[in-house]
Automatic annotation (TrEMBL):
Belongs to the FGGY kinase family. It comes from Dellaglioa algida DSM 15638. Keywords: Kinase, Transferase. This is AraB protein. Residues 19-244 form the Carbohydrate kinase FGGY N-terminal domain. GO terms for biological process: carbohydrate metabolic process. The keyword Kinase applies. The keyword Kinase applies. One of its GO terms (molecular function) is kinase activity. InterPro entries: ATPase_NBD, FGGY_C, FGGY_Carb_Kinase, FGGY_N. Residues 280-478 form the Carbohydrate kinase FGGY C-terminal domain. It comes from the Bacteria. PANTHER family: SUGAR KINASE, XYLULOSE KINASE. The lineage of its organism: Bacteria, Bacillati, Bacillota, Bacilli, Lactobacillales.
Length: 542
């Protein structure tokens, strides 16, 4: 019997009626190929880690391209094996990546300093000065904070800046030749004017008028990528770009390129959270919540970013630098121990078994405390990372409580930030959807998050892979957007017609237990601060 779905998909691949989403996350680069009905037909991935070099977190551009080519090659091989057609044509392509950071290039496109990622907390002076000057919260990880800090530091490379990029806009530029950026990603570079759909002209002028900035030959307006909204044409894949993407040379140029977006924006698309009064939470190496505002914030808060959806609506973003990294490290240790006993478990099996143990924990995690700070944390004002586990002699030290405190700690900075929205701004959402690898084990992480924030949390079937798939959806939107349909309506009426989802409400006992944990957590923050002062970072050979 002929499988008609297989035949149909094979024909779509042959005709190039497919779209590709690529996302460069903090621990994984992933390529997702989808058909015009938004179904994933092939994926490929590449694991990578940031490196701490000369006190700054970075990734090499060589790793960027190795990761993109590896994930693309895996995806293309997946297509060939399943559908018996080589991947030679793709209708539309979109690139997304970690937001913020600092990639600056000379006129000859030479990288002037190693990529400075969102994870760095070396821009406190510039962020504080710009926040006061612009009356707009400029977090340390924003690109403009990195630029101004380099100015304040009198770094010699600043003289030679021709253009500044985020990771997504850089990759897009190399693939298409266009120095453009999606409005959501752009909102992590510099404040956006919702009415004009680009950087705020008034605030750009204020920045340009700063005495030390005015000394340079470049103007900030000229070095930033051009802003585009979701659905706009962001160029085409060039022949040179196709070779960068597909090292085998089989892929033809000419694919429509969607505006490159940040991972926050693709997370919103992947969870259908772009309409006002909706929100989503992404939990991975870092974590952030995105609440689409229906009214302006009353005050400027250092811990609340104002960014935008991929269509340009304002969003209150709570971003924390540390979430699952410490859990990943502990799970790795448990995996090593299991291997010593001759028990071979996959990573998914390890996470599932350990997370399920936490369901037997005390509601307050037995009095245990954990600080999951692999790097500095803006929400709690920690300049560097010192992962720290603390207990008292009479704490209830059990495996379930230990795993529970890891989960509790992963969400702790996020809770501290989101309490500002709920308790001070009284912002409410109609729905809050969560995604991320920490939620792949059914129910466990989702229930902890609901208890942490004391709000219902919805998880969709795409919880673990929302970002790159969301970028592929934006690529299809760019391809189809010839009738003026809004992104909100496109997602509601075409993409999420019958979504698979599950919602969990807070449990009173769990909420009370988490509140006890967070009280101890906040009381112990001076211990974490002292650890940073007294335990110095040491370089070790791998």
């Amino acid at each position: 019997m002929i499988n008609m779905d297989l035949v149909k998909t094979s024909q779509a691949v042959k005709n190039g009626q497919v779209s590709l989403g690529i996302e460069l996350g903090s621990t994984r680069i992933k390529a997702v190929l989808v058909t015009d009905d938004f179904k994933t037909i092939a994926t490929g991935s590449f694991n990578w880690e940031n490196q701490l070099e000369d006190g700054l977190w970075t990734y090499s551009l060589e790793q960027v391209w190795l990761g993109i080519q590896t994930s693309y090659r895996q995806m293309a091989a997946n297509v060939q094996s399943k559908y018996h057609e080589p991947l030679t044509k793709i209708d539309s392509i979109g690139v997304s990546a970690m937001m913020h950071g600092y990639l600056v290039f000379s006129e000859k496109d030479d990288l002037l300093v190693p990529f400075r990622t969102w994870r760095n907390n070396n821009t406190e002076q510039s962020a504080d000065e710009l926040t006061k000057l612009l009356n707009f919260n400029i977090p340390q990880r924003w690109s403009i904070a990195h630029l101004y800090q380099a100015v304040l530091n009198d770094e010699t490379h600043v003289n030679d800046i021709s253009h500044l990029e985020t990771l997504a806009s850089y990759v897009h530029y190399k693939l298409s030749g266009k120095k453009v950026i999606g409005i959501g990603d752009a909102s992590g570079i510099f404040p956006i004017d919702e009415k004009t759909g680009t950087y705020s002209a008034d605030l750009l002028d204020k920045f340009s008028d700063i005495k030390k900035v005015a000394e340079y030959d470049w103007n900030v307006k000229d070095i930033l990528p051009t802003v585009l909204r979701a659905g706009e044409n962001a160029g085409s894949l060039t022949d040179e770009g196709s070779k960068l993407l597909d090292a085998s040379g089989k892929l033809e140029g000419g694919s429509l390129m969607a505006p490159p977006e940040g991972d926050a924006g693709t997370g919103m698309v992947g969870t259908n959270s772009v309409r006002k009064r909706t929100g989503n939470i992404s939990v991975g190496t870092s974590a952030f919540s995105m609440t689409v505002l229906d009214a302006p914030m009353k005050k400027v808060y250092k811990d609340i970013d104002i960014v935008t959806t991929p269509s340009g609506a304002p969003v209150a973003m709570v971003h924390v630098n540390n979430s699952s990294s410490d859990i990943n490290a502990w799970v790795s240790i448990f995996g090593e121990f299991a291997a010593k006993l001759g028990v071979q478990l996959t990573p998914d099996q390890l996470y599932e078994r350990l997370f399920l143990e936490s369901t037997h924990a005390d509601a307050d995690a037995g009095g245990l405390i954990n600080y999951s700070y692999l790097s500095g944390e803006n929400i709690t004002h920690m300049s560097e990372g010192r992962p720290l586990f603390v207990r008292t002699p009479n704490s209830h030290f059990t495996l379930p409580n230990f795993i529970q405190t890891q989960l509790y700690a992963a969400f702790a900075p996020l809770k501290i930030g989101m309490d500002i929205l709920s308790q001070e701004e009284h912002i409410q959402t109609d729905v809050m959807i969560a995604q991320g690898g920490i939620l792949k084990t059914a129910v466990v992480g989702q229930q902890v998050l609901a208890n942490t924030l004391n709000i219902p949390i919805t998880v969709m079937s795409t919880a673990g892979e929302g970002g790159p798939w969301g970028m592929a959806v934006l690529a299809i939107f760019a391809k189809r957007n010839n009738n003026g349909q809004s992104l909100e309506d496109f997602l509601d009426h075409e993409v999420f017609v019958d979504p698979e989802s599950m919602t969990l409400s807070p449990e009173p006992e769990g909420v009370e237990g988490y509140n006890k944990f967070i009280s101890r957590y906040e009381a112990g923050l001076p211990v974490e601060s002292e650890a940073i002062k007294t335990i110095k970072e040491e370089k070790r050979n791998e």
